[in-house]
């Protein structure tokens, strides 16, 4: 091999082009490659030079931030191999919990002993996401307001071409791996109802709730009886002077909900009890106790799903 030039790039080879001759020795060609069937262009990097895998994750909701935690904390050795970027279209972290702010209601690696009540509000969940992401530096690789507009696998390059849009500007980046944490519920959709958008009253969507509007003393129609509709109707009913009609075209199926009293181990008729200072103190001081409470809740909730097993005894109980 020729001696590297004094001003050679970091890998020690100059920008000159070399041709491998039939005797195996490289011959300097000063940038012009003679026509020959035996030309083998030499790479400027030595063989086996380590290269970081470029990973792009789409979305900085729970999923994207959990991926960040895995790369940074769960498997910190990955930082030597992976260059990670999270592209988030919105202007803040949180995903579902950033956009769904209508009036209603954990990261496994940082359970929260300080929830205010059994079913926390969306705003409280969003605060928890922001607090935890900053505590663990999970926003380090996040680029906000960066929408992924197109993904195309380039067979010849062996990479994804990622078309990104930010502030009206579009460009392309390439990634070895693309992880989708883009969720499914973050883009809201209006129902197909002719004339809906000609309605001259106030029109709001649960995923884009207008908080400034005063909903009291109004006749309110809530379309739909999914999870959102179910949570919105009682809140609207509670407001002074409202007359609420819920339009539903089919029944809502609600599976057995283990009452909070069973999880908390104490009698309460409150469907959404506040946690006491004493409970929060216990969980803060004893993470094992908090874990036991969380695991118990998950176990009792999952057990209820037995009723949807075909021919299960739980299902037969309901049938009868
Ligand atoms: C109103 C509501 C209540 C819910 N309640 C519960 C509950 O009580 N318990 C529960 O477990 N689950 C609940 N869910 C489900 C909830 O969506 C998940 O729990 C979880 O938050 C999903 O997280 P995610 O990161 O996978 O997706 P998301 O939270 O949807 O985050 C996806 C992110 O990707 C970004 N993104 C998407 N496309 C692109 C793109 N092309 N370019 C750049 N960025 C992009 C979005 O901006 C968003 O920030 C609820 C969902 C809704 C809508
Ligand atoms: N865990 C929670 O606290 C929580 C809270 C909110 C949302 N979520 C989740 O978020 C997701 C979205 O929930 P969502 O309730 O917003 O939406 P959804 O589940 O899609 O429900 C939409 C509702 O609107 C009805 N609808 C649609 N078009 C209609 C029309 N033209 N006329 C009358 N009714 C119409 C649907 O009726 P049909 O059923 O007949 O289509 C359905 O009842 C779900 O996965 C849900 O689990 C969870």
Structure overview:
There is one protein chain. The chain is of the alpha/beta class and 320 residues long. The protein has 4 domains: 1-42, no CATH class; 53-183, FAD/NAD(P)-binding domain (3-Layer(bba) Sandwich); 198-247, no CATH class; 260-319, no CATH class. It is 25% helix and 18% strand. The chain has helices at residues 62-74, 96-99, 122-135, 227-238, 260-264, 277-285, 287-303, 313-319, and strands at residues 18-20, 26-28, 53-58, 82-87, 142-143, 147-154, 159-166, 169-175, 177-180, 219-223, 243-247. The strands form 4 sheets. It has a 4-stranded parallel β-sheet with strand order 5-4-3-9, with helices on one face. Strands 6-7-8 form a 3-stranded antiparallel β-sheet, with no helix packed on it. 12% of the residues are buried. It binds flavin-adenine dinucleotide and NADP nicotinamide-adenine-dinucleotide phosphate. Flavin-adenine dinucleotide binds at residues 58-64, 87-90, 95-96, 100, 147-148, 181-183, 185-186, 228.
């Amino acid at each position: 091999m020729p001696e590297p030039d004094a001003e050679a790039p970091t890998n020690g080879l100059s920008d000159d082009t070399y041709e491998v001759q039939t005797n195996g020795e490289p011959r300097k060609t000063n940038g012009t490659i003679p026509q020959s069937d035996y030309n083998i262009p030499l790479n400027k990097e030595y063989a086996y030079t380590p290269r970081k895998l470029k990973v792009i994750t789409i979305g900085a909701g729970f999923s994207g931030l959990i991926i960040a935690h895995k790369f940074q904390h769960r498997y910190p050795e990955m930082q030597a191999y992976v260059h990670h970027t999270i592209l988030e279209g919105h202007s803040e972290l949180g995903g579902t919990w950033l956009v769904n702010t209508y009036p209603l209601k954990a990261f496994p690696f940082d359970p929260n002993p300080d929830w205010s009540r059994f079913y926390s509000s969306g705003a409280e969940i969003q605060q928890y996401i922001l607090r935890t992401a900053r505590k663990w530096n999970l926003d380090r690789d996040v680029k906000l307001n960066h929408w992924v507009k197109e993904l195309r696998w380039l067979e010849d390059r062996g990479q994804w071409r990622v078309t990104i849009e930010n502030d009206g500007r579009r460009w392309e980046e390439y990634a070895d791996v693309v992880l989708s944490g883009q969720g499914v519920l973050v883009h809201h959709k209006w129902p197909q109802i002719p004339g809906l958008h000609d309605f001259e009253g106030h029109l709001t969507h649960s995923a884009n709730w207008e908080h400034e509007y005063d909903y009291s003393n109004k006749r309110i129609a809530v379309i739909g009886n999914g999870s959102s509709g179910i949570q919105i109707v009682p809140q609207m009913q509670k407001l002074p002077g409202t007359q609420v009609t819920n339009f539903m075209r089919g029944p809502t199926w609600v599976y057995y909900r283990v009452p909070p009293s069973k999880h908390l181990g104490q009698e309460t008729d409150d469907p959404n009890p506040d946690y006491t200072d004493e409970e929060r103190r216990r969980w803060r001081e004893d993470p094992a106790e908090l874990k036991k409470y969380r695991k118990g809740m998950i176990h009792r909730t999952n057990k209820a799903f037995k009723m949807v097993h075909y021919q299960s005894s739980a299902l037969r109980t309901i049938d009868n």
